[in-house]
């Protein structure tokens, strides 16, 4: 058997520090999409509370905390980030391992909102998009998931195959914001 | 142009894929006859005014949305989930 070496999606590209923002790769652990069976949403939420200590999030919201989080991931879909899913969840939902399918990065700093304003068509100001809020949207034509994980920190996810493009676009926007300060 | 997704809220048009007239919601029954099926497959209205389209929230939540809009004024009048609308249509 060949020995396969795990390689993070943004290896060799991150971290970056430009102006007042930093961009780093997040080792998110296990990623599992949870798609509840018809009529099982409430039972699934109870099972998620019992197994992982957090309820199923409403649309555009997250539950949990750093290291163990459930984020709304689209219509009828939630992404469990961190732990391996408890087997009881499979009674109420279709579970799919997505661990190696996504690039997960963290953009942090005073200019983070200004950087993202150059790339995303949604309002991410703190009054509109608070900690615990999440959105599915597009980042320069890439399908993306954006979550505010701190007062000046965002988690950004795109398909793993687009990791290099993601870093390039974020780096360009970070340089643009830094140049205007 | 901005479309209000029932899940995601008001979003820019660029997040959506345009499928076309919402005829898929009015599929004829199997034995409806040649004329009904010919109209369903080939004939489309081209209204100057209110029309119904299907849009896909492609880079958002992946919902199919029935958008009622005015082709003259570009006003968006209504946005509903296609899955809800479809369940009301008897097939
Ligand atoms: Zn949506």
Automatic annotation (TrEMBL), chain A:
<dbReference type="InterPro" id="IPR027266">
    <property type="entry name" value="TrmE/GcvT-like"/>
</dbReference>
<protein>
    <submittedName>
        <fullName>Sarcosine oxidase subunit gamma</fullName>
    </submittedName>
</protein>
From TrEMBL, chain B:
<dbReference type="GO" id="GO:0008115">
    <property type="term" value="F:sarcosine oxidase activity"/>
</dbReference>
<dbReference type="InterPro" id="IPR038561">
    <property type="entry name" value="SoxD_sf"/>
</dbReference>
<protein>
    <submittedName>
        <fullName>Sarcosine oxidase subunit delta</fullName>
    </submittedName>
</protein>
<dbReference type="Pfam" id="PF04267">
    <property type="entry name" value="SoxD"/>
</dbReference>
<dbReference type="InterPro" id="IPR006279">
    <property type="entry name" value="SoxD"/>
</dbReference>
<dbReference type="GO" id="GO:0046653">
    <property type="term" value="P:tetrahydrofolate metabolic process"/>
</dbReference>
